[in-house]
Give the backbone structure.
Amino acid sequence: MSVTTTAGKLDVRPAARPKANKMFNFGPVAIGWGVLLAIYVGLRLYQQAFAFEYGLDSTTPEFETYWVTLFNIEIPLIFGTGFVIWTYLWMTRDRNLAAIKPEVELKRYFNLVAWFMLYTFSFLWIASFFGEGDATWHQTVIRDTALTPSHIVVFYACVPMYIVFGVGSLLYATTRIPAFANGYSVPLLMAVVGPALILPNLGYNEWGHAFWMTEEIFSHPLHWGFSFLGWTGLALGGVLLQVVIRMSQLLKQLSPVESVRAK
């Protein structure tokens, strides 16, 4: 709010309202979606080209060349990139959140929504496309190892990628936004930690298939953990509710109409 006096008159002019295009930049999200889409389509085409020809017998040199090599590349590359991103978010954290301005806080909420958009986009690929493809593969081809062409893509590429964005979302929220830094958001923890536990749950799944249930029945209790942990991602709706409520409060604070009414 700007207040000046001209010729004995009080001039009350509302402060300029932040422009939406300065608050949220869709460009990085679109680029992220494009990169992820290229990766996922590339992995699917790789499966199409080499899975049935070189992925049926894990004892062959061709399997080592085409599939173990892919496994050895993707794990350190994805998690290495994740650790770099997580370290950057932590090292550049805001150490004075008590003094944050409303417009800065609002922009950070928009940035958090951008993180969620990347997280959900990556999560949908395993929750639907590659997840269903894995069940179809193992119902068609008898597994002879935990490192099948399907698993190498779905569990060791797709899961680590959405873990990177999930943990990144959690770190961004807790290091830059007061509401998440000053307390624990149960929905946010559920939405990030729950789906991330799909990766360690793979160990139980492989143990069960090796010593208990060799058939790939999608509704078998061995797979209930994947469904339950995947459903925890729905807690993201609760997080968005928290975000929208706070963003509406910040918008009212920055609204010139509300500022005039307050005076």
Remarks:
- The CA atoms of residues 106 and 249 lie 9 Å apart.
- The longest helix spans residues 102-140.
- The domain at 22-262 is CATH 1.20.1050.50 (Glutathione S-transferase Yfyf (Class Pi); Chain A, domain 2).
